[in-house]
Write a structure and sequence with these properties.
Blueprint: H1 11-19, H2 36-44, H3 49-57, H4 67-75, H5 80-99, E1 115-122, E2 132-136, H6 141-146, E3 158-167, H7 177-180, E4 194-200, E5 203-205, E6 230-234, E7 238-243, E8 248-259, E9 262-275, E10 281-292, E11 295-304
Helix pairs in contact: 1-2, 3-5
Length: about 325
């Protein structure tokens, strides 16, 4: 008897049986990405875990692997190795999509009376050879204390990463700046600023796929807590901002994390008294992280380029 014969009452199985018309032999529709219901349906239809894993690894996928849905899949008796394959395939696909070359935008010039500052984000010398930045999906005790996060596990969940460019010159900060900046609700580490460019959009990566040294440490609050996954964000090729030409600007490049409903600054580098000419200005920055014994430290550096100003676009 199939191990899935007794789970007809679960939410996942109800979706698989009642909502989706089953193709022949429990196969998902070849035109659609593989979803949670398709995996359950294949297992219920008698396919072995090895066969299902093979199908997952070769298909486009659109899995929902939130904590609640993962619990539903376990209740539906989906084997651990199948869940692992689902997470690995979804993370692989998310990373591939994040690093695909975006379509070339139509040329855009800065607004009248403004100059363009372009900060190129380059790979670190001797780095891991990737443009992905990773960070645990839950704050450890030290980070939570530094960011004044709450004590409960729910208050320490990290849901997104972002890279940003901002100006801290006091005279350039707009009125009601907090309502104009994604970092406006960070009352811990962010002073007054004008946000020039902000790039969020991290994807979740299973901790078991982390490089050596990056696997988050086990929580200190009790053995029942699950090991936190990682978040990965593809670093943008560049950050762009429009500034007034001919006057100095105190610019920062930084990394922020989203905890609950607000972004908090995690790391930054500042370059003071930067002056952009009418032709614009090019700068360069390195954003990198290093993992050691499950602790991830993020470092940001920014410097002036010797190159001429950026081309308009």
């Amino acid at each position: 008897m199939s191990p899935f014969a007794g789970v007809a009452g679960s939410v996942i199985l109800a979706l698989a049986v009642a909502v989706l018309p089953a193709p022949a032999a429990g196969e998902p529709s070849p035109a659609a990405p593989l979803r949670n219901e398709d995996v359950v349906r294949m297992l219920v239809g008698g396919r072995s875990p090895a066969e299902v894993i093979k199908a997952i690894r070769s298909a486009d996928v659109a899995f929902d692997l939130s904590d609640d849905m993962t619990r539903e899949l376990r209740l539906a008796s989906v084997p651990a190795e199948v869940l692992s394959a689902m997470g690995a395939r979804q993370a692989e696909q998310d990373r591939k999509r994040a690093t695909e070359t975006p379509p070339v935008a139509a040329p855009q010039r800065p607004a009248e009376g403004k100059s363009l500052v372009v900060v190129s984000i380059g790979p670190p010398a001797g780095g891991r050879g990737t443009r992905d930045l990773v960070f645990p999906a839950r704050l450890d005790d030290d980070d939570a204390r530094a960011l004044l996060a709450g004590a409960s596990a729910e208050e320490r969940v990290v849901t997104d990463l972002a890279v940003f460019l901002a100006c801290r010159t006091p005279d350039h900060v707009p009125d009601q700046w907090r309502s104009r900046s994604p970092l406006g609700r960070d009352f811990v580490s962010v002073p007054r600023h004008e946000m020039l460019d902000f790039h969020p959009g991290a994807s979740r990566v299973p901790a078991r796929t982390a490089p050596s040294g990056y696997r988050p440490a086990a929580p200190r609050h009790g053995p029942s807590e699950a090991e936190p996954d990682l978040l990965a964000i593809a670093l943008p090729i560049e950050l762009r901002g429009e500034v007034d030409p001919g006057i100095p600007h105190d610019l920062i490049v930084g990394v922020a994390i989203r905890v609950g409903d607000r972004f908090l600054e995690l790391a930054e580098a500042q370059l003071d008294r930067v002056v952009a000419g009418a032709e614009g200005l090019s700068l360069s920055a390195v954003v990198t992280e290093r993992g050691e014994k499950g602790t991830i430290a993020i470092d940001v550096r920014i410097k002036r380029d010797g190159a001429p100003g950026p081309p308009p676009r």
